[in-house]
What we know:
Layout: H1 2-23, H2 29-52, H3 59-85, H4 96-105
Amino acid sequence: EAIRFCIVGVVATLIQYGVYYLLLPYMDERIALTIGYIVSFCCNYIMTTQFTFKVKASPKNAGGFALSHFINWSLQVVSLSFFIWLGVPKEWAAIPLDMVCVPVSF
């Protein structure tokens, strides 16, 4: 279960950053990050229920999943803005934010 959890986390992160990088030339980085997060969130929920924990999706577990991810998304947007403010190029600023967000949200 722990290995499946890590696999889902890596796949969800790659999806989020893939969408972020594809959208970045066309919009504000916070919007690109948010769209990437939404796409990743949907994939993550499906993979978590069906692959990681092998449970049936329900409003109860979806609500808890959404709440924890809303907090994580908020932290990611703040961290992204902070790293860009520090001078990290917006193409790379989404990478160090995981160094902050993953340990905090875990």
